[in-house]
Amino acid sequence: MDGVRQWTHAELCAIAVKWLKRPNSNNGHGCHVAVSEVRSGWTGEIPDAIGFRQSGYTPSDGSVVVEVKVSRSDFLADRKKPHRIEGGLGNWRYFMCPEGMIQPDELPEGWGLLWINKRGHVKPKAGFALALAGSSNYHRHQEAMAAFRQESDLLGEQFILVKLYSRIGDAEELNQKMREAWAERQQLAKRCDQLREEVRSLRRDLRVARRRPANELDELTESLGNLNANRDSTRKSPVRSWAGGES
Protein backbone atom coordinates (compact mmCIF):
# COMPACT_ATOMS: atom_id res chain seq x y z
CA MET A 1 0.00 0.00 0.00
CA ASP A 2 3.10 2.24 -0.26
CA GLY A 3 2.38 5.43 -2.16
CA VAL A 4 -1.38 5.15 -1.69
CA ARG A 5 -2.96 8.40 -0.62
CA GLN A 6 -4.46 8.40 2.87
CA TRP A 7 -8.06 9.32 2.18
CA THR A 8 -10.38 10.46 4.95
CA HIS A 9 -13.80 8.94 5.45
CA ALA A 10 -15.50 12.25 4.59
CA GLU A 11 -13.52 12.61 1.35
CA LEU A 12 -14.51 9.15 0.16
CA CYS A 13 -18.16 9.76 1.11
CA ALA A 14 -18.14 12.86 -1.11
CA ILE A 15 -16.63 10.85 -3.99
CA ALA A 16 -19.24 8.13 -3.46
CA VAL A 17 -22.13 10.59 -3.71
CA LYS A 18 -20.77 11.97 -6.99
CA TRP A 19 -20.19 8.47 -8.34
CA LEU A 20 -23.77 7.40 -7.56
CA LYS A 21 -25.04 10.13 -9.89
CA ARG A 22 -22.86 9.05 -12.80
CA PRO A 23 -24.81 7.73 -15.80
CA ASN A 24 -24.37 4.17 -17.05
CA SER A 25 -22.32 5.57 -19.94
CA ASN A 26 -19.74 6.64 -17.35
CA ASN A 27 -19.84 3.37 -15.37
CA GLY A 28 -22.28 4.57 -12.72
CA HIS A 29 -25.84 3.83 -11.65
CA GLY A 30 -27.33 7.16 -12.75
CA CYS A 31 -29.08 7.91 -9.46
CA HIS A 32 -31.39 10.91 -9.44
CA VAL A 33 -30.90 11.48 -5.71
CA ALA A 34 -27.74 10.72 -3.72
CA VAL A 35 -26.77 11.67 -0.16
CA SER A 36 -24.25 10.70 2.49
CA GLU A 37 -24.67 9.49 6.08
CA VAL A 38 -28.43 9.72 6.55
CA ARG A 39 -30.45 7.74 9.08
CA SER A 40 -32.79 5.01 7.90
CA GLY A 41 -34.72 5.08 11.17
CA TRP A 42 -34.35 6.19 14.74
CA THR A 43 -32.01 3.22 15.19
CA GLY A 44 -30.24 0.97 12.74
CA GLU A 45 -28.32 1.47 9.51
CA ILE A 46 -26.74 4.79 8.51
CA PRO A 47 -25.28 4.24 5.02
CA ASP A 48 -22.12 6.13 4.13
CA ALA A 49 -23.72 6.99 0.79
CA ILE A 50 -27.02 5.99 -0.79
CA GLY A 51 -28.59 6.86 -4.10
CA PHE A 52 -32.01 6.33 -5.66
CA ARG A 53 -32.86 5.92 -9.33
CA GLN A 54 -36.42 6.04 -10.66
CA SER A 55 -36.58 6.31 -14.44
CA GLY A 56 -39.57 4.08 -15.15
CA TYR A 57 -37.37 1.19 -16.31
CA THR A 58 -37.81 -1.41 -13.57
CA PRO A 59 -34.58 -3.45 -14.02
CA SER A 60 -32.37 -0.42 -13.34
CA ASP A 61 -34.59 1.40 -10.83
CA GLY A 62 -33.91 1.09 -7.13
CA SER A 63 -31.39 2.00 -4.47
CA VAL A 64 -27.59 1.80 -4.39
CA VAL A 65 -25.52 1.80 -1.20
CA VAL A 66 -21.80 2.55 -0.96
CA GLU A 67 -19.99 1.69 2.26
CA VAL A 68 -16.71 3.56 2.66
CA LYS A 69 -13.75 1.87 4.32
CA VAL A 70 -10.44 3.59 5.07
CA SER A 71 -8.92 0.78 7.15
CA ARG A 72 -8.77 -3.01 7.04
CA SER A 73 -10.05 -3.29 10.61
CA ASP A 74 -13.17 -1.29 9.73
CA PHE A 75 -13.85 -3.56 6.76
CA LEU A 76 -13.40 -6.74 8.79
CA ALA A 77 -15.70 -5.46 11.55
CA ASP A 78 -18.41 -4.50 9.05
CA ARG A 79 -19.60 -8.05 8.49
CA LYS A 80 -20.66 -8.29 12.15
CA LYS A 81 -23.22 -5.48 11.88
CA PRO A 82 -26.84 -6.68 12.32
CA HIS A 83 -28.06 -5.21 9.05
CA ARG A 84 -25.29 -7.04 7.16
CA ILE A 85 -26.55 -10.32 8.57
CA GLU A 86 -30.27 -9.60 8.21
CA GLY A 87 -30.28 -7.72 4.90
CA GLY A 88 -30.04 -3.96 4.91
CA LEU A 89 -30.38 -1.08 2.51
CA GLY A 90 -29.59 -1.09 -1.18
CA ASN A 91 -30.67 -3.10 -4.20
CA TRP A 92 -27.04 -2.83 -5.26
CA ARG A 93 -24.21 -2.59 -2.73
CA TYR A 94 -20.56 -1.64 -2.93
CA PHE A 95 -17.56 -1.18 -0.72
CA MET A 96 -15.36 1.80 -1.59
CA CYS A 97 -11.78 1.93 -0.36
CA PRO A 98 -8.29 3.18 -1.21
CA GLU A 99 -6.78 1.22 -4.08
CA GLY A 100 -5.75 -2.31 -3.09
CA MET A 101 -7.03 -2.25 0.50
CA ILE A 102 -9.87 -4.74 -0.15
CA GLN A 103 -9.68 -7.53 -2.71
CA PRO A 104 -12.66 -8.83 -4.75
CA ASP A 105 -12.41 -12.31 -3.25
CA GLU A 106 -12.98 -10.87 0.24
CA LEU A 107 -16.40 -9.41 -0.55
CA PRO A 108 -19.70 -10.66 0.86
CA GLU A 109 -21.88 -12.36 -1.74
CA GLY A 110 -23.53 -9.95 -4.13
CA TRP A 111 -21.36 -6.94 -3.25
CA GLY A 112 -19.36 -4.78 -5.63
CA LEU A 113 -16.03 -3.07 -5.03
CA LEU A 114 -14.79 0.39 -5.96
CA TRP A 115 -11.14 1.34 -5.59
CA ILE A 116 -10.08 4.98 -5.33
CA ASN A 117 -6.63 5.76 -6.70
CA LYS A 118 -4.41 8.58 -5.45
CA ARG A 119 -5.97 11.01 -7.95
CA GLY A 120 -9.49 10.31 -6.69
CA HIS A 121 -10.57 8.28 -9.73
CA VAL A 122 -13.08 5.49 -9.18
CA LYS A 123 -11.94 2.08 -10.47
CA PRO A 124 -14.68 -0.61 -10.43
CA LYS A 125 -13.28 -3.99 -9.35
CA ALA A 126 -16.47 -6.02 -8.79
CA GLY A 127 -20.23 -5.74 -9.17
CA PHE A 128 -22.46 -4.22 -11.81
CA ALA A 129 -20.12 -1.24 -12.23
CA LEU A 130 -17.33 -3.59 -13.34
CA ALA A 131 -19.60 -5.04 -16.03
CA LEU A 132 -20.27 -1.52 -17.29
CA ALA A 133 -16.58 -0.69 -17.39
CA GLY A 134 -15.52 -4.00 -18.91
CA SER A 135 -17.97 -4.34 -21.79
CA SER A 136 -20.22 -2.27 -24.03
CA ASN A 137 -22.58 -5.20 -24.61
CA TYR A 138 -26.12 -4.25 -23.55
CA HIS A 139 -27.20 -7.82 -22.78
CA ARG A 140 -24.21 -8.38 -20.50
CA HIS A 141 -25.09 -5.20 -18.65
CA GLN A 142 -28.62 -6.43 -18.09
CA GLU A 143 -27.42 -9.82 -16.89
CA ALA A 144 -24.97 -8.24 -14.44
CA MET A 145 -27.59 -5.81 -13.18
CA ALA A 146 -29.96 -8.68 -12.40
CA ALA A 147 -27.22 -10.88 -10.93
CA PHE A 148 -26.10 -8.29 -8.39
CA ARG A 149 -29.56 -7.00 -7.45
CA GLN A 150 -30.59 -7.67 -3.83
CA GLU A 151 -33.71 -7.25 -1.74
CA SER A 152 -33.55 -4.02 0.23
CA ASP A 153 -35.00 -2.63 3.43
CA LEU A 154 -37.90 -0.72 1.85
CA LEU A 155 -39.14 0.80 5.11
CA GLY A 156 -35.69 2.12 5.90
CA GLU A 157 -35.36 3.63 2.41
CA GLN A 158 -38.83 5.17 2.67
CA PHE A 159 -37.76 6.76 5.96
CA ILE A 160 -34.73 8.32 4.24
CA LEU A 161 -36.71 9.72 1.32
CA VAL A 162 -39.52 11.16 3.45
CA LYS A 163 -37.05 12.83 5.81
CA LEU A 164 -35.10 14.29 2.90
CA TYR A 165 -38.27 15.54 1.23
CA SER A 166 -39.45 17.15 4.45
CA ARG A 167 -36.32 19.31 4.53
CA ILE A 168 -37.28 21.25 1.41
CA GLY A 169 -40.13 23.01 3.24
CA ASP A 170 -43.81 22.94 2.32
CA ALA A 171 -44.10 20.18 -0.29
CA GLU A 172 -47.49 21.35 -1.61
CA GLU A 173 -46.25 24.91 -2.05
CA LEU A 174 -43.34 23.60 -4.11
CA ASN A 175 -45.71 21.36 -6.07
CA GLN A 176 -47.93 24.33 -6.98
CA LYS A 177 -44.94 26.40 -8.08
CA MET A 178 -43.72 23.56 -10.25
CA ARG A 179 -47.15 23.22 -11.86
CA GLU A 180 -47.32 26.96 -12.55
CA ALA A 181 -43.85 26.92 -14.07
CA TRP A 182 -44.75 23.97 -16.27
CA ALA A 183 -47.92 25.74 -17.47
CA GLU A 184 -45.91 28.88 -18.28
CA ARG A 185 -43.39 26.82 -20.18
CA GLN A 186 -46.15 25.19 -22.22
CA GLN A 187 -47.64 28.58 -23.06
CA LEU A 188 -44.28 29.93 -24.20
CA ALA A 189 -43.68 26.84 -26.33
CA LYS A 190 -47.11 27.24 -27.96
CA ARG A 191 -46.44 30.91 -28.69
CA CYS A 192 -43.07 30.06 -30.25
CA ASP A 193 -44.80 27.52 -32.51
CA GLN A 194 -47.30 30.18 -33.58
CA LEU A 195 -44.51 32.65 -34.35
CA ARG A 196 -42.61 30.07 -36.41
CA GLU A 197 -45.73 29.44 -38.47
CA GLU A 198 -46.22 33.16 -39.00
CA VAL A 199 -42.60 33.52 -40.11
CA ARG A 200 -43.02 30.71 -42.64
CA SER A 201 -46.18 32.35 -43.96
CA LEU A 202 -44.51 35.75 -44.32
CA ARG A 203 -41.53 34.21 -46.10
CA ARG A 204 -43.88 32.62 -48.61
CA ASP A 205 -45.55 35.97 -49.12
CA LEU A 206 -42.15 37.63 -49.50
CA ARG A 207 -41.13 35.25 -52.28
CA VAL A 208 -44.33 36.09 -54.14
CA ALA A 209 -43.97 39.81 -53.47
CA ARG A 210 -40.51 40.01 -55.05
CA ARG A 211 -42.25 40.29 -58.39
CA ARG A 212 -44.40 43.19 -57.16
CA PRO A 213 -43.61 46.91 -57.04
CA ALA A 214 -40.82 48.02 -54.66
CA ASN A 215 -43.15 49.72 -52.11
CA GLU A 216 -45.07 46.47 -51.44
CA LEU A 217 -41.80 44.55 -51.06
CA ASP A 218 -40.51 47.05 -48.46
CA GLU A 219 -43.73 46.70 -46.47
CA LEU A 220 -43.51 42.92 -46.32
CA THR A 221 -39.80 43.03 -45.43
CA GLU A 222 -40.55 45.39 -42.54
CA SER A 223 -43.34 43.07 -41.29
CA LEU A 224 -41.02 40.09 -41.33
CA GLY A 225 -38.36 42.01 -39.40
CA ASN A 226 -40.84 43.03 -36.73
CA LEU A 227 -42.06 39.44 -36.32
CA ASN A 228 -38.52 38.12 -35.94
CA ALA A 229 -37.85 40.70 -33.22
CA ASN A 230 -41.06 39.65 -31.45
CA ARG A 231 -40.04 36.01 -31.64
CA ASP A 232 -36.59 36.73 -30.17
CA SER A 233 -38.19 38.62 -27.30
CA THR A 234 -40.52 35.72 -26.54
CA ARG A 235 -37.67 33.21 -26.69
CA LYS A 236 -35.83 35.16 -23.97
CA SER A 237 -38.81 35.13 -21.62
CA PRO A 238 -37.55 33.34 -18.49
CA VAL A 239 -39.24 30.42 -16.81
CA ARG A 240 -38.82 30.69 -13.04
CA SER A 241 -35.66 29.06 -11.71
CA TRP A 242 -37.62 26.81 -9.39
CA ALA A 243 -38.96 24.94 -12.40
CA GLY A 244 -35.54 23.64 -13.28
CA GLY A 245 -36.31 19.90 -13.08
CA GLU A 246 -39.25 19.83 -15.49
CA SER A 247 -38.65 19.02 -19.14
Descriptive key words:
247 residues, alpha/beta, six-stranded mixed sheet, 8 helices, 6 strands, 47% helix, disordered C terminus
Overall pLDDT metric = 86
Low-confidence stretches: 240-247
- The secondary-structure class comes to alpha/beta
Tally of alpha and pi helices:
8
Helix percentage range: 40-55%
Strand content: 5-15%
For the largest beta sheet, what order do the strands appear in spatially? 1-2-3-4-5-6
Count of strand segments: 6
* Radius of gyration (Å): 27 Å
Order of helices and strands: HEEEHHEEEHHHHH
Which descriptor suits the 3D outline? elongated
Termini Cα gap: 47 Å
Looking at the chains present, what oligomeric state does this protein adopt?
Answer: single chain
Major sheet: 6 strands, mixed
What does this molecule look like?
This protein has 247 residues and is α/β, with parallel strands linked by helices. It has eight helices and six strands, in the order H-E-E-E-H-H-E-E-E-H-H-H-H-H. It has helices at 9-20, 72-78, 82-86, 128-134, 138-148, 154-166, 171-209, 214-235, and strands at residues 33-36, 49-53, 62-68, 92-98, 111-116, 122-126. Strands 1-2-3-4-5-6 form a six-stranded mixed beta sheet. Helix 7 runs antiparallel to helix 8 (214-235). The two termini are 47 Å apart. Residues 240-247 have low confidence and may be disordered.
